Amino acid sequence: MSQSHSIQASPSSPLCKNCHTAPVHVEASGRVHDFCGRRCAAAFGPSAPAAHGPSYYSPGGEMCLLCGDDPKHEINGRMTDFCSVSCRDDVYESAPALLEIPDSYEEFEEIAQLFRDKWLHEVTPEKPRPRQVLKIYKVYSKRSHMKKFLAYKKAKGNARRRWHGTTRKCVLGDESSMTGFCGQSDCAVCGILQNSFRVSKAKPTRALVANGSFQRFGVGIYTSATSSKSYDYIKELGGSPYMAMILSEVVMGKACKVKYEDHNLTSAPSGYDSVVGEPKLTVNYDEAVVYTDEAIRPEYLVIFEPGT
Questions:
Q1: Which of 2, 70, 74, 247 could tie 56 with a disulfide, CB 3.0–4.6 Å?
Q2: What is the largest CA-CA distance in the chain?
Q3: Which CATH class is domain 100-305?
Q4: What share of the chain in percent tops pLDDT 70?
């Protein structure tokens, strides 16, 4: 721990829970830790009965997304969403699951800002700018899918965040208490958050869909870096006054950049892993297409209030 972020411990400071010799670390803000340093914290962690042995607390004081009782901490040198291994495991063992990110957290503002910054369409009466981001939930996918996704990501690389708009037939996420999946087979939002994206769910047709768009690059999973483009594909059929959009992590690998449509594609061209439609003629805003389930996972659910 950096000396510039600590203050001199007084003789009355409690002793480290691990070595029982040195006084605990005290931050300049007055926050008192359980250990004298990272080494003792890491050594103590594995032996803790409930695995509550953080090696380093979240500097912003952000609390565990699951229990909300203790600050987030590092596991294996990486800041996590949880205060402990036990909270982390509880979430992944019950996945798929959604956990709300409080609007005071940096992660909330990061995602909300990305949503706002990538609203690139001209504001019109038919397409007003959203009023505000109301809720953001982090998505924890099934272990079975995450294992395949991470293996694909390691092999191909070039992961990007991309937006996806689709049909919601419920009010999932409208309120903090509404995080249970509705179970309706035609609620695409719940289906994606529960089982991730599936190429088999893509409609193998060139026919226009209700919003006037169609699969310009064949049968695949479509996303966009432009939130206002993904907005065009949202259908709210569950009576909600709000709208939902999914932010996904997409493994692009070696992307083939194209400017013209090719409706016959069922995979990326030979030597490529994905297709990126760049703005040109009929492609007004960017589109990213992957053709395998392992190339994408839902990462966040964003609930926003539409403009009027």
A1: 74
A2: 77
A3: alpha beta
A4: 77
